[in-house]
Amino acid sequence: MPVEAAVYGKTSYYIFEIVGKETNKENEKQMLTPEKIDAYCAILERELIPATGCTEPIAIAYAAAAMRDTLGGLPERMRVLVSGNILKNAKSVVVPGTGGKKGIAASAAAGAVAGDASRLLEVIDSITPDQREAIWAYLSSTPITVECVEDGLTLDIRITGWRGEDSAYVRIAVAHTNIVRVERNGEVLLDRPVVDAGHESDAPSILNTADIVEFADTVDLSRVEGVLRRQLNHNLAISAHGFTKSCGANVGRVLLANGSEDLATRARAWAAAGSDARMSGEELPVVIVSGSGNQGITASVPVAVWAKERGFEEEKLLRALIVSDLVTIHQKTGIGRLSAFCGAVCAGCGAGAGIAYLEGGGYEGVAHTVVNALAIISGMVCDGAKASCAGKIAAAVDAGILGYRMYTQNQEFVSGDGIVVKGVDNTIRNIGRLASDGMRETETEILSIMLETETK
Asked: Pick from 191, 222, 249: which residue ends a domain?
């Protein structure tokens, strides 16, 4: 398999350059129904999409670009209303292409000045130096008010712009590119239910761990290999980039600074380096999972590093990625896109499941790995997108790998150990309950602390 080297210090790290080849179909059992196979393929197609920049500020930029197009020109003033979770995840992360600008106003300005709404979450993928100067000038001269609005939705963005006598309004809700309402001068141009089945995953009624492993074992890879290869190429590239320059707190570099050569540390470091770069606003696309670039990196990069180091073939890697991605999505469906529960936990457990699958663990290995890992790391909270996400990713991947290693030594956490219950899917449901119901007050307190800190 061809590889491309990325050099950090005296050590070379390698990323896969996946190339096409015949798909091995000899062992296809097709025990899943055709309808369920179609549904699983659709989930991967829908969830594994490219985004340049942290998805919450980029969703704001997308809404602003769509609002500007509706208005027919650059607004002379803007009002941005966002839910608490959007505020939390957009306030501290660098917006790509802006020269280091952070926050909601910068995101809205970048989208309004330079955004291409047709590119969705790559809306500000190609900001030129002249556009960057224009964004700075716009920010310094244009009134942009930002307010937090809470009406029960964790993902809610509402942007109004005014230009002379004209006004335009765009609302995104539930999913990062799900525009539910558009108005111009008070006339409603688009109005759809806030919960749009075309964007909300139907995974809660479909995904289960046994079927995920069965799907990974048997699916014709030609149906999903395109999105999986894109995921590998994009996410490994930004992780390699994270080793080439100072990004954030340089967690990836720190993990390797002592010369550690063990595989688990390299897997953690590569995932962390991708987040180091992404949270610093590096202008490289990432294939997201469940609406998050950090989750996309965490679910894919450790599995790829493990496969390369252990000499697994391309097909085994792709099937292991299916397990990691779908296990991550399975966990997130009970939690929601945004929560006080750190999404890196789900992706780190997903990566552990993918590694277990690589090593031949099958359903039993995957199930035990996930339960063990969740028992270890499920208390981690999300306090917004920023540099420390890379450290949380490293911890989550470590828990995933430890969960797998426990399985290999016939050790496990059993029903009654805290929130662990009999059956991996039942434990996953408990995690969803913990995150969506049990952490509502935690979410409010985290946001309160963050806003207090900002005013001091």
From this structure: 191
